[in-house]
Amino acid sequence: MHAPAPLTYRELLLKPEHLAFALPGFIGRLPLAMRALSCILLIQGITGEYGLAGLVGASQTLVSAFASPRIGQLADRHGARPVLAIALVIQTIGVVALIATAYANAPALVLILSAAIIGGSSVPFGSFSQSRWPLHVARGRDLERAYALESVFGEISFIAGPALAVFLSVEIAPPLGLIVSLAMTILATAGMIRLPAIETRGTDTVDAPATSLLRHPVIVVVAGSGVGMGIMFGATEIQLVAFAEELGREGLASVMIGLFAAGSLIAAILYGLVPLRSSLRWRVLASAAWVALWMIPTALVGSIGAMIACMVFAGIGIAPWAITG
User: Fold this and answer.
1) What is the three-state SS of 10-69?
2) Do residues 32 and 159 touch, judged by C-beta distance below 8 A?
3) Cβ contacts of 224 within 8 Å, gap of 6 or more
4) Are the C-beta atoms of 91 and 121 separated by less than 8 Å?
5) Block means of pLDDT (10 residues each) for the chain, length 325 residues?
6) How far apart are CA 51 and CA 43, in angstroms?
7) Which of 39, 42, 185, 243 would you label with 32, given CA atoms 20 to 30 Å apart?
8) Cα separation of 36 and 51, whole Å?
9) pTM, whole model, 2 decimals?
């Protein structure tokens, strides 16, 4: 008896019960791709200082990196609805505070703290969406393809998000990138709040020691490579903006950032379509090594064309690493 064929991308996406959480998850990913760059462009657009803008953007990103897992943990313990609602209120306060203090020429510390409030209330909507797939599809190829679809959403957001942030903040008004990202956060929050609660069961409700997962060597390796990837993502965005400005091609910064994500988008689609027989361990190592190999030349190239080539090829390794991890 033949095993049933894996679900197609169309079947995964167009079922109403899947779309109900996948769509808010996708909308919520766009602000994630916009916030740091929008903070940078807001401060740079008002003050003209890239150094201060980088500090404000870094504050938002760094605090978000530490806060996002905690937000997920609180949602597991207390339910998603109250956590999402509270995070949205705090996010709104942070966005309003950063815009107001930037125009008021407030001290750098005030701007950094305002950005930290934004980062501290940044909900990991992708994780909220991903956590629901195992409740709807079988483990194995169907779940792998579902996670590949999630990766596609992530890469689309990192193509569209920075480009949208640059257009809104540079071409129209410096605060507009942050304002639109907040509006998208409101939409995503409303969509997620409408969903039925995920039942907690087994050990999910037990207060385990915070370090328990980090005792597993596989978790340490994957988490460690994730930290490295996150640092690389944040540095690359600022690097590309500065690189384009140095060459007098500021408008191409968002194009290069988008092409970085485009390489990953192509790889995510193929990952879900092409059967792979190699072990998960080998896939993680190979994809991380591929990204590292193509990021090295970015410190040496001197032309837009060469940088674009490095970005596209480096991006090809990101989605396979994320999905496999």
Assistant:
1) HHHHHCHHHHHHHHHHHHHHHHHHHHHHHHHHHHHHHHCCHHHHHHHHHHHHHHHHHHHH
2) no
3) none
4) yes
5) 62 76 85 86 83 84 84 82 90 92 89 91 83 74 76 77 82 89 92 72 46 71 78 78 81 78 79 71 84 87 88 85 76
6) 10
7) 243
8) 14
9) 0.71
